[in-house]
Design goal:
alpha+beta, Aminopeptidase, 25% strand, globular, N-acetyltransferase domain-containing protein, GNAT_dom, Acyl_CoA_acyltransferase
Length: 399
């Protein structure tokens, strides 16, 4: 008989072997190195299906996180699912579906109302996971070969007549971690992270590893004061040496990749971040670089559009399950200047209703109304109930 249960710390090594055999056979780095939140010793949240002889037949990684949102930095609890795999000889038995229910129940016991999934398989959509939010994909290219083009590009970002600051770029070494963390911690919408935790994620370079890109961390400073940063993934053959003698932080394995240069994370004021990002193609000799920008970073997006960037729109990355609507609304209450109960009502069965009309909201409406600013607002919901902003999910915290 198959047993479905929480893994023990000593069983994580077997989980790494199974995950590597499915996702990274004969490829480095290992899943254990790329996803320390799932496989490092400590308090384990992940679940497994164990066959009668005690071997791990199927695995579902589960990692907790806390989101900080709004100027008050209110916290929303969440979990992320990843590294979902089943040994070939055990496939087709429904193990993943049972493990998913275990993970949902685990998150519910932790009073975490959100579950993020880095996938859109029917396994997840059958359980109620849906696309969510809105983001822009911004494609930045060099300003061209005309004389003064880089200067004109920078001038487009600043007010007319403004003196352009001397922005200097350098690779961020390990000694820059605390400076990077200070910029990260100043963001209104982010995953809550200690300096050590941020260093763990930068060192793991998980999403770069998935894309087969080499991670680089670029720090922008004005008069030696860090003002912005960008974590980027570039194909290994596209290397540019800053010649500054800095030993960069650990990067992903240099394996061939057809994926395009991508910004994994960024931080700093909108103006300084736009100045840094828009200059990356020219500075690094890239034909283009892709920048995912979540909807709430409106100021940054508006600045990048001044550079004639190519912009397309779509949902945030992956899918999301709202486990408990009441807990989500209570944890996000700081976003709204009025009590959420004036707009919405949740009954004992967890169903969601418009408070003014009593109309039940279909579950497919939940993610649109609560996370997407472009979703049509029905007349029976007030305008002050603004969507909950979430970070872009396929970044440093990719699971």
């Amino acid at each position: 008989m198959t047993t479905y249960r929480l893994l023990k710390a000593q069983e994580l090594t077997e989980a790494v072997r199974l995950s590597d055999s499915v996702f990274r056979p004969q490829t480095q780095p290992s899943m254990g190195e790329m996803f320390p939140r799932l496989f490092a010793p400590g308090i384990v949240h992940s679940y497994g299906a164990f066959s009668e002889d005690g071997t791990l037949a199927s695995f579902m990684g589960l990692a907790p996180s806390t989101l900080r949102i709004g100027v008050n930095r209110d916290s929303i609890r969440a979990f992320s699912i990843g590294s979902v795999c089943t040994a070939p000889e055990h496939r087709g038995a429904g193990h993943a579906g049972r493990l998913l229910q275990q993970c949902i129940a685990h998150a519910a016991r932790a009073e975490a109302p959100l579950l993020f999934v880095s996938g859109e398989r029917s396994l997840y959509t059958r359980a109620g996971c849906v696309p969510f939010g809105r983001s822009a994909n911004v494609v930045l290219r060099p300003p061209g070969s005309a004389e003064g083009a880089p200067l004109l590009l920078r001038q487009s970002l600043y007010e007319p007549g403004a003196v352009l600051p001397a922005l200097t770029l350098r690779e961020a070494g390990p000694e820059e971690l605390l400076r990077l963390h200070a910029l990260h911690a100043a963001e209104n919408i982010s995953f809550d992270e200690s300096a050590a935790g941020l260093g763990e994620l930068l060192g793991a370079a998980a999403y770069c590893g998935v894309l087969g890109l080499t991670q680089r961390i670029i720090l922008a400073s004005i008069e030696h004061e860090p003002v912005a940063y960008a974590v980027i993934g570039v194909p290994p053959h596209l290397q540019h040496d800053f010649n500054d003698g800095v030993t960069s932080m650990p990067s992903a394995q240099e394996t061939p990749s057809e994926n395009l240069p991508t910004v994994i994370a960024y931080g700093g004021t909108a103006l300084h971040a736009a100045d840094l990002l828009s200059g990356l193609p020219e500075t690094l000799g890239l034909e283009e670089i892709h920048v995912p920008v979540p909807w709430q970073d409106r100021e940054l997006l508006a600045l990048l559009q001044k550079t004639d960037a190519e912009v397309s729109y779509g949902p945030n990355a992956g899918t999301l399950l709202i486990i408990d609507a009441r807990q989500l609304l209570e944890q996000a209450q700081g976003l709204w200047h009025r009590p959420w109960e004036e707009a919405l009502r949740v009954d004992k069965q967890g169903r969601l209703f418009a408070a003014s009309s009593g109309r039940e909201l279909d579950r497919s409406e939940w993610a649109g109304l609560l996370f997407d600013p472009e979703y049509p607002r029905p007349d029976d919901l007030p305008n002050w109930l603004i969507p909950i902003p979430l970070p872009y999910l396929y970044g440093l915290h990719y699971i």
